[in-house]
Write a structure and sequence with these properties.
Elements lengths: L10 H14 L5 H12 L4 H6 L7 H15 L4 H5 L1 E4 L2 E4 L12 H10 L8 E5 L5 H9 L4 E6 L2 H13 L5 E5 L10 E6 L14 H4 L15 H13 E10 L5 H10 L2 E8 L5 E8 L5
Parallel strand pairs: 3-4, 3-6, 4-5, 6-7
Antiparallel strand pairs: 1-2, 7-9, 8-9
The structure holds glutamine.
């Protein structure tokens, strides 16, 4: 670690030191992480760091950066250290109470927006397991004349989600502490969910950023990872409107089995959409209420 006496630490040299250190520790994106954390410590942008590369750090700045580097070396996610994460072009506040929003989850939003084009002006949406609120709030912001309900079992997560809704001015979202479905919600045009979908026994094998720091309740999908998927498929049938859409994010390799479960539960037009990495990430289907 650079000490105050090893003068003078410039932006350029401290970044090189931190990214070499992160690389040696096996961290995936060492340079990017170092830049994000230094920009955070100096309350500036990554662009400004490049422009000010030769500028020496003040002792207080160096101290703040050192503290962040120490936590990152212990594999705490960058998003928690910065207190925010970008999702679908908007910044969401995040901390250890919620799952860090992933780029892959943007696929869930894209599927939801695409499959509800016909009711875009007055869409009623439910986001089950809302966590930081990133999915519900994004839908609400993209469809300002629509309404979204969002649920989570964790009051801690709901506090973060509500804060995000206020911060982003998403006034057309209502939050409920509920296990998937809100007490009075029904007739949704779309139900979306990024539920916990990791098999319980696999959680400890995941990268330390996930297994040690993210809320287990947001990850654990039961013995085969599909406990919540089954309940969403079952419950979706009573809360969806005629021709309502259910869209669920799934783990790598789960899509074929989940698509089969959609069919077995009576959903039609079942589709699998791929994320930025080409992995089948979102399974969706349409619910047609059976005619008597
Ligand atoms: N809906 C949130 C997200 O996609 C949280 C999901 C969760 O906690 N499983 O990031």
């Amino acid at each position: 670690m650079p000490s105050d006496k090893t003068a003078p630490w410039t932006i350029e040299s401290v970044l090189r030191w931190a990214s070499d250190d992160f690389l040696a520790k096996g961290i995936d994106s060492p340079r990017l992480d170092a830049e994000l954390l230094l920009a955070h410590a100096l309350n500036t942008t990554r662009m400004q760091l490049i422009l000010d590369a030769k500028k020496p750090l003040l002792p207080g700045e160096l101290g703040r950066f050192r503290a962040l580097v120490k936590r990152r070396r212990a594999r705490e996610p960058v998003a928690y250290l910065r207190g925010e994460r970008e999702f679908f072009g908007r910044s969401f506040a995040v901390d250890a109470r919620v799952l860090v929003p992933r780029p892959d989850t943007e696929c869930l939003v894209t599927v939801a927006l695409t499959r509800t084009r016909h009711c875009s002006m007055s869409m009623r949406a439910l986001d089950a397991c809302t966590g930081s609120g990133c999915v519900a709030i994004t839908l609400a912001k993209e469809r300002l004349t629509s309404h979204a309900d969002a649920t989570d079992v964790s009051p801690d997560a709901l506090a973060v989600a509500q804060h995000n809704a206020l911060r982003l001015g998403a006034y057309n979202v209502a939050f409920y502490e509920a296990d998937l479905f809100p007490p009075h919600g029904h007739a949704y045009d779309i139900v979306v969910s990024n539920p916990p979908y990791i098999a319980s026994s696999e959680i400890d094998t995941l990268m330390p950023e996930v297994s040690r720091f993210e809320p287990r309740i947001a990850l654990d999908g039961g013995p085969d990872g599909l406990s919540f998927v089954r309940r969403l498929l079952e419950g979706g049938r009573s809360v969806l409107s005629q021709e309502g859409v259910l869209a669920i994010e799934v783990g790598d390799g789960q899509a074929p089995q989940v698509a089969a479960l959609f069919e077995q539960n009576g959903y039609r037009d079942v589709e699998c959409a791929r994320d930025y990495g080409g992995i089948e990430r979102v399974v969706s289907g349409v619910w047609y209420t059976p005619t008597k």
